């Protein structure tokens, strides 16, 4: 293993969006146990520091790979198409219109049933975007550029779902 290995190499997994979460978790547990600093007690300060560096690297990679959105963004970057969410806000026109419609629905929602319905609608759209990203990243002939567009849309969806929760909390405090 090399610290410079990308996350999939580190875990011995294929570079795919569709991962077996149980396999990822098992590999993380094995790697984490192997590099845990406590295992290297008594081997000197240099060995302890190296073990700490490895433990941090393994945990960072695991966090990135276990989250489907982070994993998709990482795969886009590995394939030469970084997301650049801060500077590249390009989204297709239909998604922009859809965003405006959702925002209006959220602003006008007065009841919990309306908020629940909007949340379910957005979650279905999120699932479709994840399917698109996985298809573009995993299937032969897929496009990292189309996957990156889906990932940028997914980032918006994740923030919008948080907005829905904030609206729910504002309208219906516990």
Mind explaining what this structure looks like?
This protein has 174 residues and is mainly α. It has 2 domains: 7-66, DnaJ domain (Helix Hairpins), CATH 1.10.287; 93-171, Monooxygenase (Up-down Bundle). 71% of the residues lie in helices and 0% in strands. The protein is built from 7 helices and no strands. It has helices at 7-11, 21-35, 45-66, 68-78, 93-108, 112-138, 144-171. Helix 6 (112-138) runs antiparallel to helix 7 (144-171). The longest helix is centred in the C-terminal third of the chain and has 28 residues, at 144-171. The protein is globular and about 65 Å long. The model has no long low-confidence stretch (mean pLDDT 92).
Sequence-ordered SSE layout with sheet pairings:
Layout: H1 7-11, H2 21-35, H3 45-66, H4 68-78, H5 93-108, H6 112-138, H7 144-171
Helix pairs in contact: 2-3, 3-4, 4-6, 4-7, 6-7
Gyration radius, in Å: 20 Å
Give the number of DSSP strands: 0
Structural class: mainly alpha
Sheet with most strands: none
CATH topology of the largest domain: Monooxygenase
Mean pLDDT: 92
- Count up the helices: 7
CATH class of the largest domain: Mainly Alpha
Task: Note the main attributes of this structure.
174 residues; mainly alpha; Helix Hairpins; Monooxygenase; 7 helices; 71% helix; 0% strand
Summarize the structure.
The protein is mainly alpha-helical and 174 residues long. Helix 4 runs antiparallel to helix 7 and helix 6 packs antiparallel against helix 7.
């Amino acid at each position: 293993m090399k610290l410079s290995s990308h996350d999939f190499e580190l875990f011995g997994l294929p570079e795919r969006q569709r991962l077996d979460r149980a396999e990822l978790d098992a590999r993380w547990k094995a790697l984490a146990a192997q590099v845990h600093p406590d295992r290297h007690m008594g081997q000197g300060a240099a060995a302890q520091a190296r073990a700490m560096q490895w433990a941090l690297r393994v945990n960072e990679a695991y966090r990135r790979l276990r989250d489907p959105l982070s994993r998709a963004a990482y795969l886009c970057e590995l394939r030469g198409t970084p997301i650049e969410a801060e500077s590249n806000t390009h989204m297709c026109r239909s998604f922009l219109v859809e965003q405006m419609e959702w925002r209006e629905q959220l602003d006008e929602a007065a009841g919990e049933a309306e908020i629940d319905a909007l949340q379910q609608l957005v979650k279905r759209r999120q699932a479709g975007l994840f399917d698109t990203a996985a298809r573009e990243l995993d299937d032969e002939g897929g496009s990292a550029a189309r996957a990156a567009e889906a990932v940028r849309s997914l980032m918006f969806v994740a923030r919008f779902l948080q907005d829905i929760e904030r609206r729910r909390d504002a309208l219906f405090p516990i």
